[in-house]
Design a protein that fits this description.
Shape of chain A: globular
Number of strands of chain A: 13
Radius of gyration of chain A: 21 Å
Order of helices and strands of chain A: EHEEHEEHEHEHEHEHEEHEE
Distance between the termini of chain A: 21 Å
Largest interface: A-B, 32 and 32 residues
Strand order of the largest sheet of chain A: 7-6-5-8-9-10-11
Strand content of chain A: 25-35%
Helix content of chain A: 25-40%
Oligomer: homotetramer
Chain lengths: ~280, ~280, ~280, ~280
Amino acid sequence: MKNTATLLITCPDTKGIVAAIANFLLEHNANILHADQHQDAENNLFLMRVEWDLAGFDLTAARFHEAFSPIAKKFNMQWQLKLSQQRTRVAVMVSQYDHCLADLLHRYKNGELDCEIPLIISNHRDTEGLAKFYGIDFHHIVVTKDNKTEAEATQFRLFDTYKIDLIVLARYMQILSSDFVARYPQRIINIHHSFLPAFIGARPYHRAFERGVKLIGATSHYVTEDLDEGPIIEQDIARVSHRDQVEDLIQKGRDLERVVLSRAVRWHIENRILLYANKTVIFD
Amino acid sequence: MKNTATLLITCPDTKGIVAAIANFLLEHNANILHADQHQDAENNLFLMRVEWDLAGFDLTAARFHEAFSPIAKKFNMQWQLKLSQQRTRVAVMVSQYDHCLADLLHRYKNGELDCEIPLIISNHRDTEGLAKFYGIDFHHIVVTKDNKTEAEATQFRLFDTYKIDLIVLARYMQILSSDFVARYPQRIINIHHSFLPAFIGARPYHRAFERGVKLIGATSHYVTEDLDEGPIIEQDIARVSHRDQVEDLIQKGRDLERVVLSRAVRWHIENRILLYANKTVIFD
Amino acid sequence: MKNTATLLITCPDTKGIVAAIANFLLEHNANILHADQHQDAENNLFLMRVEWDLAGFDLTAARFHEAFSPIAKKFNMQWQLKLSQQRTRVAVMVSQYDHCLADLLHRYKNGELDCEIPLIISNHRDTEGLAKFYGIDFHHIVVTKDNKTEAEATQFRLFDTYKIDLIVLARYMQILSSDFVARYPQRIINIHHSFLPAFIGARPYHRAFERGVKLIGATSHYVTEDLDEGPIIEQDIARVSHRDQVEDLIQKGRDLERVVLSRAVRWHIENRILLYANKTVIFD
Amino acid sequence: MKNTATLLITCPDTKGIVAAIANFLLEHNANILHADQHQDAENNLFLMRVEWDLAGFDLTAARFHEAFSPIAKKFNMQWQLKLSQQRTRVAVMVSQYDHCLADLLHRYKNGELDCEIPLIISNHRDTEGLAKFYGIDFHHIVVTKDNKTEAEATQFRLFDTYKIDLIVLARYMQILSSDFVARYPQRIINIHHSFLPAFIGARPYHRAFERGVKLIGATSHYVTEDLDEGPIIEQDIARVSHRDQVEDLIQKGRDLERVVLSRAVRWHIENRILLYANKTVIFD
């Protein structure tokens, strides 16, 4: 089983950052497996992802913090360390359409998604059987105009109980409150069934059909206060023609949604995503 | 050299249309090369394109009208007949960016675009050499806020003089007046450098960069009264990443613009496009 | 529920075919929903697909044969009629990799595949749970060098018992005998995990990795006597880079295989595929 | 004008390489603009590209060699340094099809290809006008079975005279001798009009048509001894259908060839390509 550490760093760009990090890792006998960095000239930002084998590395996670702090301070870094053996704990929220959920669960079981999925929450009962088949706890929480606050409170308790790190909205057709969004910054991933920023809001396939576009799309993004305005993680498109009715767009779109959401989830749990300026850097 | 006729038909859908057309063509000894039809159930519309060899066909273009009229009347058809030997006469309007123009001219010379391009109009002199190289008349017409009406009047005279059927805006950075647009309905094709309806208006690559999209696009469309709202003919996209700056988006976008515009022009001159409900049917 | 008939026709190209068919359908009061035709000039072939609503049509399927025979004879047609209410009965054969099977079953349940899937056959037990979840009979038939003939005989009996029309090899890792293939002409669909004709045979992802290709592919095709040489139904590709190891190619490939196989199955059961000259015409 | 240095490095993977390079660059006051590295676990190889601003850097190119040698020796590196102001000198060889040449020249003039193109060699006269339009020397060298050695000797002399660094075969339909290939290792780029390794050799579009593939491709690669077996730099594909005849494949293929060849040339002149094990690493 893989036993690596991944460090994600953002800081103002200046000379000597790479040398400082490389020397630190060498000093502690790290065997670097992957390193990727990005300079954003316009924002004068340095962004880096480095992953190393923990075999031979002479610092525990606990001691890493202390040892790395002087460097982090010197370069004014924001950083996070992630250990491959501390698997991200994911909750999936879903309504009636189950194609994204079924896809995520299959990838999870196959080992393609190296995380834990202990919890599924739905405002419908349609996906209960699927949850059971994969041995995942299913909680049915009806959401209405009147009970939204309570319903979310119940959801928060479940996230706490299951020690959830990441919430995936796999075609969950309820709008989250500001409170919900603020509570899990950069920890909620949504799939929107259009090529954002085209067709923000409801019924994107219907509006794409009416506009007569020749391509349809899907977009996975982090959820922020503004609906469909969060940082985009991944997008993809499919070709359509005049022969396609709305139903065909919806069907072709399902294939996009599955792939585009699953990539976002995988990149998140592999610590490949850095956020800045409402954009994502995906370290591949 | 190809010697065919193409008939484009739109009418309310009802029984017997195909039989009526097929019988008519058989009666006059047409050898059908391609036929394609589309039913739009929602709008109860029948749309058809049929192309036949003129060898052996016993009607001239002049007599076709009279002979076909009873059928057209019976089914309440809108129709147009096009002969491959009456090549569409195209004017290209362009500003400073010459990549779409250069591409169109190369395809024209290669025989990929089976039309005549006798006229290039520009509000700059940058592309004059290119026009000369391909032996095409070049007219430099400066457009300002104050002279717009006169400038367009000059353009109209040129279109008349050169008997222009189709106007292609190959990155022409001036907004046409309503009068101009109304004068050439479904006869002006524009290339917009975004995936419409995303980034309508100015500086789409800059806005795509700011939004952090993972794909950029280009859209060719007929020009109508509402800017960037006309019927879409073709779209395509390219993948971008955090490594791409605005300049990279612009460069990748040029490859899209070339291809997306040239396809629209080709389909138009091959009579493959039927318009309805602000959408296009592309008969391939 | 949809109640339509679909007619697929191949015959030598000559004048009057479309008129004859259109008149025949009109005579019997058919309401044509879709019609598409293709002329292959090189092979002088006419190919057509026409689908009509059975409401109001005045021939039963039984009487259709008799009524249409004179036309079929006159134009030397090969033809087949399919009724939407006689749903294709599909058997899926699978080994250990279950991603294509899981995908097909999910689409089946969703109504995206308008067929019956009463039978799954595997030489492993891995997918038994999945079959059970979807309520489909699962038969475990071990195949060895020594028992191949008997194993196939058992398979044939099952196909007969379940009245199977189409056999889908969803990553079934056994080579079928010539006898098997001959028994189900144009009724076996396979998914090959490469962009055929590149990497025919075993371990295509490993060979793609060694060759250093920048795109990987998947191909669905009808199975014929020659391994991986049958008529191609659909292909798609995904981009890879030097960062991708064989495992990454395999993972990216799974997404291709799922989509490419499911499209082939859908087109087959919707009677959209015509075969000729070892190629397919896909009427979309 | 850009004034940067790019260093490409390949060496056995071991601890401390990044630290050594980063320290070296920091010591000499380099402002790193881009750095990208790749570890090939299977081959135990470390590959890196690093680009820095020369403003403030305290070594001349001449002195760099001496200063960097100890590090290069210690880690057993193969390396090359390239200065942005020493622009690659490119010769294009072409036969009758001019679409790739026209595309390269347009990108060159636009500034998209940051190189010098002083020389075009052709075995036909068709592209002489194009060369003249862009102000590039054109040499017409007829190649026959009998004069091949002499013809190539003439070509070699021209490459020497024009101090050519890179030879681009832009649909040059003559097979180069082993001697030619050996003389310019990793300095000849070819465009092959298929998705290699499918359809190696002659007439790939015709064979793709016969095989009935649903996608066609193009591949740019370095030329090595074995025809069409050299390291692949870039590939792309386009969708085709039963409606496409060989001529349509050829036309759609031209768009692929243009883009796929131009990317390879750009990446080469920007020093983004590292070769190993008959594969390329493209640092983007």
